[in-house]
Amino acid sequence: MSSPAGGPVFADRVLNDWLSSVGLGIEYSRAEANTLYYVDEDGQEVPVLDHVCGFGSLIFGHNNPDIVAHAKAVLDRQVPVYVQLSHQSHANDIAAVLNAVLRREIPGGDGDYAAIFANSGAEAVEICVKHAELERRARVAKLTDETGRNAEEAREAVGAGRATVAENPYVQFDGASGESDRLERLLAEAGRRNAELIGRGPVHLALENAFHGKLVASIQLTQNPHWRLPFTSLASSTRFLRADRPDEMKAAVEELRTSLLDVLVDDGVVTVVERDFPLVGAFFVEPVQGANGMRPLTEAAAREIRAVCDAVGCPLIVDEIHSGMGRTGAFLASSHMGLRGDYYTLAKSIGGGIAKNAVALFHRDRFRPEFEVLHSSTFAKDGFSAAIALKVLEMLEADDGRAYRIAAERGDRLKGALAAVAADFPDVVDAVHGIGLMLAVEFKDQTRASSEPLREKAASGMLGYLIAGLILREHHIRVLPVGPAGNSVRFEPSIYLTDADIARTENALRDVCTILRDQDGHRLTP
C-alpha cells in the first residue's frame, strides 16, 4: 500500500488495508448533521447517512452550526487555551452545571460532585482508577494505624503483667520463653501476613462484556480478551460479573473477602481478630453496555450492584462516556434504572463534535482533595474545549431539555423500524437492543450457515463488517458492528435523524436480512 502521493505509508497501513478488504475503505471529505460525504471516481460528491456518529459522540451531529459558530467566536476572542496553574473559572462553571443536572437525575442525589477534567473517556476512567486506589489506600492506612496502636497496647499490657497471650491458629508457641516472647512471635507472624496482603494490588469489579477503554488501566476493565490479555501484567486485576445474574454478584464478592490480622486485649487476654481488608478497589459499570450490543442494565442488576458496593465499601463508578449526555433520552442513562454512582465519567458528546474533552466526577463524601494536586494534565481543562462543553450543556438543557425529548422520540421511532424488520425476519434477527439513540440489531449466529462464505466470515468474526460494507456500498449508509462477537450492528445517530433517514435505514436492513435468509453470501463480498 502507498500513500495518495505515491510515497511510503507511515500511519494506518494495516488498518487501511483491512478496511478496504471489507468494503469500508472510504475517505470522507465533508460532514454535516447525520451526513458524511466522499468524492467518487467520477469526482461526484456522494452523501452517506451516518449511524456511527463518532461512536456515539455526536448527539448534535457533525459540524453543528451553532457549536461551530460558538467555537469561531471563542477563537476570535482569543480566549486563553492553555494556562496551567492559574485560576480557571470555566472548570467550575462546567462542574456547576453538571452538578445541577445530576441533582435532578440521580435518585436522592444532592448534586455535590468534585470535577477532574481529562482529554478522553479512557483517561477519565484511568483517573477514577487512580482516585479509587487513593481512597482505598487511605482506608488501608487507617486500618494499619489501628492495628499498630493495638499491637502497642498489647505489648504494654503483657509487659506490665496485665495480660497473657491466648493460643491461636496462626503461630505455635513451642519453646517460648514467656508471654512477651509469645506476643512478639504472634505480632511477627501477623505482621508478615499483613504486609503480604497490603502489598497486593486492588481487584476491581466490572460486568461481563464491559468496555471501559484501551489504556493501561482501563484495558483491564474491558473484558474482550483480544484487547485485554496481552496487557494483563501491567495493571490491577478485574473480576467480571454477570449483569443478568444479580443474585450471584454478592456470592462472587464474598469470594474476594480477605482479612487483616489484629490483636486485641480483652479481659486480660491477648486474642487475634480478623479485620475486613479493602481488597476491592471499585466497581465499574456502564448503564448501557455498548460493546455488548447496546444492552441496558435491569433495575434488579442496578440495585444489586449498589448493594454490593455499599457492603464492600468500594466506590461505584458509573461510566456514562457512551450512554450519557442525552443519548438515551435523559442526561444520564443510569437515571432510567435508578443507578446511583459515587463517581461518574462523561466524554464523547461533551466535546460537541469538534473538541476532545472528558470529566470524572467524585461525590464529596469520597473525594480526596489532595487528588487535585496529585493528578494533572497539560491539555485537560483547556479554555477552548471548556467553552465548547458549556455550549453543549446549554443546548442540551435548553427549552426544558427538549434535546432529551427528541432523542427519546427519534430513538423510539428508529427502534420501531428496526423491530419491524426483526418481526418480519425472525429466522435472521435475534433481537433489537438499546434505548433512545443507542440501538443495535443482533443477527442470529451464521457459523453453521449453508452458505460457505457466510459460514467462514461468521466464524472469523468478520460478518458484521462485511454487512456494514454492503450497506455502505449499496445503500450509502454507514453502520459498524458493535461488540466482540461481530454479529450486532450499531445505530447511534444524532437527534437530527429524519423520518426519511429511518425509512432508508429500514430498507437497507431488510436487504441485509434477505441476503442472510437466502444465504446469498457472495453478495457480501466487496
From TrEMBL:
Transmembrane segments: none
Keyword terms: Aminotransferase, Pyridoxal phosphate, Transferase
Cofactor(s), names only, from the UniProt record: pyridoxal 5'-phosphate
Coiled coil: none
SUPFAM superfamilies assigned to the protein according to its UniProt record, in alphabetical order: PLP-dependent transferases
MF terms (GO), sorted A to Z: identical protein binding; pyridoxal phosphate binding; transaminase activity
The keyword Transferase belongs to this UniProt entry's keyword annotation: yes
PANTHER family, alphabetized: ACETYLORNITHINE AMINOTRANSFERASE, MITOCHONDRIAL (PTHR11986:SF79), AMINOTRANSFERASE CLASS III (PTHR11986)
Family, as annotated: Belongs to the class-III pyridoxal-phosphate-dependent aminotransferase family.
Protein name as it appears in the record: Aminotransferase class III-fold pyridoxal phosphate-dependent enzyme
Species in which this protein is naturally found: Streptomyces sp. JL1001
Lineage, uppermost ranks: Bacteria, Bacillati, Actinomycetota, Actinomycetes, Kitasatosporales
